[in-house]
């Protein structure tokens, strides 16, 4: 573990008690409070993946996952916000050098938000493109420095065909956050504090230099920047694992306080049924953590070797992240059930963590359909079972 990651984990541990006392505030605001964002910025969370040559930490990916898990253990929205704000730095190196330099001209602690949906259109005009659109799920947009969007490129109102199969050409672009309109529509069941509102632009001039092709090879060398798509599912897995581990910690703390549920023969901590269930949940989460560490080590070896962009590795990572999401949801559900009637109150962290994990498990990176690719890969594209040849 590097000094940077050790210091980050120490800072997070130091801050954890005070942040945990503000979870109700985080949910009520629908975003992480600005002072907490600045605290994360000051300890270096948002520079983890920024290249060293720009003042960043360029942290080894497996170490960064430990940071996301630690933040998720405090609060799911906190871990999610850090994951998005820091993770976008792995995508930015596809930008032209001059524009990339502009983003980081003030230092490495830049927060980038955005949406992965091609929910806008761009029309060519003198000086650039006129962009209009409404993009969903822009996590952390309220405190971002820059916001990323994807557009279908039009000409005279007609989509420009892209290369290959003739699908419409899609390009990404960056604009300073102050130029976007943020809708207040993030009213959801879980991950309430991520502020994943819609963001909009209406006939806004975007210079051509702000655009990039999402399929382009990153300008910068280094294992973090060659295959961000393969790394993103592991980041989701780390945050989900942190939330679930926090749920178990909350349940154990509640039980060891001596609480005895109504009509129960013994205190919770003395019940063999409760002990067995806690042991089972703990075993499940240990397995999930071991799975994540093994996959992260494998991905990182490939990243260092320059072979991470292989499709099979994307499938492996997505399978792992989906399995961990499901395991963590089951763990949080079990913790909530074991917490009894006390867990239904809004003051209980068990209900909040359960809601956060159910919301997190809806993300495309960890959806059940990801198993389809794993099965297809195992069976072979032509439908022949590779294990039997039949």
Give the DSSP E fraction (strand runs of 2 or more residues): 5-15%
Query: Based on helices, strands and strand pairing, what is the structural class?
Result: alpha+beta
Number of helices: 11
**What is the gyration radius calculated from CA atoms?**
22 Å
Stretches with pLDDT under 50, minimum 5 residues = 382-390
Cα shape: globular
Gap between N and C termini? 47 Å
CATH superfamily of the largest domain: Butyryl-CoA Dehydrogenase, subunit A, domain 3
**How many domains, in number, for the residues?**
3
How many individual β-strands?
A: 9
Just name the CATH architecture of the largest domain.
Up-down Bundle
Oligomeric status? single chain
Largest sheet composition: 9 strands, mixed
Give the overall pLDDT as a whole number. 93
CATH fold-level topology of the largest domain: Butyryl-CoA Dehydrogenase, subunit A, domain 3
Q: What helical percentage do the residues reach?
A: 40-55%
What's the helix-strand series? HHHHHHEEEEEEEEEHHHHH
What this model shows, in words?
The chain has 390 residues and is an alpha+beta fold. The protein is globular and about 75 Å long. α4 runs antiparallel to α5, α5 runs antiparallel to α7 and α7 runs antiparallel to α10. Strands 1, 2, 3, 4, 5, 6, 7, 8 and 9 form a 9-stranded mixed beta sheet that branches. It folds into 3 domains: 93 residues, Orthogonal Bundle (Butyryl-Coa Dehydrogenase, subunit A, domain 1), CATH 1.10.540; 102 residues, Beta Barrel (Butyryl-CoA Dehydrogenase, subunit A, domain 2), CATH 2.40.110.10; 152 residues, Up-down Bundle (Butyryl-CoA Dehydrogenase, subunit A, domain 3), CATH 1.20.140.10. Helices cover 46% and strands 14% of the residues. One of its GO terms (biological process) is fatty acid beta-oxidation using acyl-CoA dehydrogenase. Keywords: Oxidoreductase. It comes from Paraburkholderia rhizosphaerae. Belongs to the HpaH/HsaA monooxygenase family.
């Amino acid at each position: 573990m590097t000094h940077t990651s050790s210091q980050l984990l120490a800072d997070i541990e130091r801050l954890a008690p005070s942040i945990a006392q503000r979870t109700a505030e985080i949910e009520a605001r629908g975003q992480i409070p600005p002072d907490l964002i600045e605290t994360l910025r000051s300890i270096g969370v948002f520079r983890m993946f920024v290249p060293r040559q720009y003042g960043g930490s360029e942290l080894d990916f497996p170490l960064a996952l430990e940071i996301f898990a630690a933040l998720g253990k405090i609060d799911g929205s906190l871990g999610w916000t850090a994951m998005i704000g820091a993770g976008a730095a792995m995508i930015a190196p596809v930008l032209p050098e001059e524009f990339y330099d502009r983003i980081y001209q003030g230092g490495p602690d830049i927060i980038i938000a955005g949406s992965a949906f091609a929910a806008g259109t761009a029309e060519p005009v003198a000086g650039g493109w006129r962009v209009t659109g409404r993009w969903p799920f822009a996590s952390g947009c309220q405190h971002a420095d820059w916001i990323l969007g994807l557009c279908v490129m039009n000409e005279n109102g007609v989509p420009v065909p892209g290369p290959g199969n003739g699908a419409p050409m899609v390009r990404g672009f960056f604009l300073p956050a102050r130029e976007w309109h943020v809708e207040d529509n993030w009213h959801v069941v879980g991950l309430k504090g991520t502020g994943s509102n819609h963001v909009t632009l209406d006939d806004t001039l975007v210079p051509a230099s702000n655009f990039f092709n999402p399929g382009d090879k990153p300008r910068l060398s280094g294992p973090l920047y060659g295959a961000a798509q393969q790394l993103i599912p592991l980041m989701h897995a780390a945050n989900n694992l942190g939330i679930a581990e926090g749920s178990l910690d909350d349940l154990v703390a509640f039980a060891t306080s001596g609480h005895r549920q109504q009509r129960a023969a013994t205190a919770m901590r003395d019940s063999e049924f409760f002990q067995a269930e806690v042991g089972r949940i703990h075993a499940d989460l240990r397995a999930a953590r071991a799975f994540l560490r093994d996959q992260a080590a494998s991905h990182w070896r490939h990243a260092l070797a320059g072979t991470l962009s292989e499709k099979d590795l994307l499938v492996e990572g997505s399978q792992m992240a989906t399995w961990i999401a499901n395991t963590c949801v089951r763990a949080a559900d079990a913790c909530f059930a074991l917490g009894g009637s006390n867990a239904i109150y809004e003051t209980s962290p068990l209900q909040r963590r359960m809601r956060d994990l159910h919301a997190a498990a809806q993300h495309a990176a960890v959806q059940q359909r990801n198993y389809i690719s794993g099965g297809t890969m195992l069976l072979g594209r032509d439908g022949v079972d590779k294990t039997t040849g039949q």
